[in-house]
């Protein structure tokens, strides 16, 4: 099932994305990975109400495009998840 995203705000150094119908777990992991990027100033999860859709807010520095920073962080998370899956599958065959 694909995530449904809604771009709420986009400037040269700031993006706000709403993750419709999603929980906050993935957004928190993505925000934590974004903070590892030296050109990301702020990466935070926002949720106005307990059962509202979560929002990711990212601001960048040094001319880094916020959507590119988000894309790169999502790719890094995907790589980590893929490696974990390979290792768990290897345990099953051992």
TrEMBL record:
- Tell me, which GO biological process terms does this entry list? DNA-templated transcription
The record's CDD domains line, in alphabetical order, gives: RNAP_L (cd06927)
- EC annotation? 2.7.7.6
- Principal place of residence: cytoplasm
Provide the alphabetized UniProt keywords. Answer: Cytoplasm, DNA-directed RNA polymerase, Nucleotidyltransferase, Transcription, Transferase
- Recorded superkingdom: Archaea
**Signal peptide segment:** none
Q: What is catalyzed by this enzyme? A: RNA(n) + a ribonucleoside 5'-triphosphate = RNA(n+1) + diphosphate
Listed Gene3D superfamilies: RNA polymerase, RBP11-like subunit
> Which InterPro entries does the record cross-reference, listed alphabetically?
RBP11-like, RBP11-like_dimer, Rpo11-like
Gene Ontology cellular component terms for the protein in this record? cytoplasm; DNA-directed RNA polymerase complex
- Kind of enzyme, top EC level? transferase
The UniProt GO MF terms for this protein read: DNA-directed RNA polymerase activity
Compartmental location:
Cytoplasm
Q: Which family does it belong to?
A: Belongs to the archaeal Rpo11/eukaryotic RPB11/RPC19 RNA polymerase subunit family.
Subunit-level organization: Part of the RNA polymerase complex.
Function recorded in the entry: DNA-dependent RNA polymerase (RNAP) catalyzes the transcription of DNA into RNA using the four ribonucleoside triphosphates as substrates.
Record-given protein name:
DNA-directed RNA polymerase subunit Rpo11
Organism in which the protein naturally occurs: Methanoculleus oceani
Q: What is the lineage of its organism?
A: Archaea, Methanobacteriati, Methanobacteriota, Stenosarchaea group, Methanomicrobia
